[in-house]
Amino acid sequence: MLVVADHNPTRHIRFAYVNWLLMIACLLVFVLRVPWEAYAFTPAHLHLVGGIKAPGGAFEIISTMASYIFLHATPLHLAGNLLAMWVFGDNIEDCMGHWRYGLFFILCGMGGAGAEALFSASPQVPVIGASGAISGLMGAYLLLHPRARVLVLVAFRVPVLVPAGVFVGLSVALDLLAALSPAMPSDVLIAFWAHLGGFASGAALITLFRARDVPLFQPATAYPEGGFLGLGRFAIDLGSDRMSLGSKVLFWAKAAVFFILITLGVEWLLA
């Protein structure tokens, strides 16, 4: 699943410039080919898993828990993370202010690094990427705007409109299943525990970082038919803003089945 847009205007700021600065930093680090070996985070260095001693001591450990966020392995890795930052970041910056947002983003990434150090099955494999910090944005978005519609490409091909709570919930569930699965292939180099740690950090920190006048669980904003980059009119819209508890449970079940069937169907057709 790839999130590509939302319709959730900012209310307190005109422009999320810190979010854009973070995106530009990720892009520049990739374009300039900064050597990741010196700035990647190695979970074993934290000693939380009986690891090895970091060559630079405590300062290097803490600094790499932040610097790894800006490193990306491939253009696709970078593009997916920049897209998620563009979708979720502006609303999180809007709810807490510019510089608080910058600190929030880094702390979520560091929380992801800590979780990876605690639970990783391969603690000596270096970790890079902003996915942990972005998962923190998603955790905050879940508590702030669970009903906001987001445009998702299921299996990277089928446009679907879903409440943000459904997308984030399914993403976290899939990460948890993958992290706990003993059958996960050894060549899958995805830091699932960093995702989960970042999500937990974002969900916890948003209650401290948000402005006093920003409520949790805000209602959805009405969106025009031509919204969502012009794809709104072509997307499958799952769910309604007004549903009973039973209808919501049924909707979540149907949404999960829909995502699974679409993914399996597309992969079968392309096999």
Please summarize what this structure is:
The chain is an alpha+beta fold.
Please tag this protein with its features:
Rhomboid-like fold, four-stranded mixed β-sheet, 271 residues, 4 strands, 8 helices
Provide a descriptive summary of the structure in words.
- This protein is an alpha+beta fold.
- It has one domain: Rhomboid-like fold (Up-down Bundle).
- It contains eight helices and four strands; from the N terminus they run βαααααββααβα.
- The protein has helices at 17-31, 57-67, 75-96, 98-119, 131-144, 164-180, 192-209, 245-270, and strands spanning 2-6, 149-154, 158-163, 236-237.
- It has a four-stranded mixed β-sheet.
- A hairpin with a 3-residue loop joins strand 2 (149-154) and strand 3 (158-163).
- Helix 3 packs across helix 4 (98-119) and helix 5 packs across helix 7 (192-209).
- The longest helix is centred in the C-terminal third of the chain and has 26 residues, at 245-270.
- The mean pLDDT is 85.
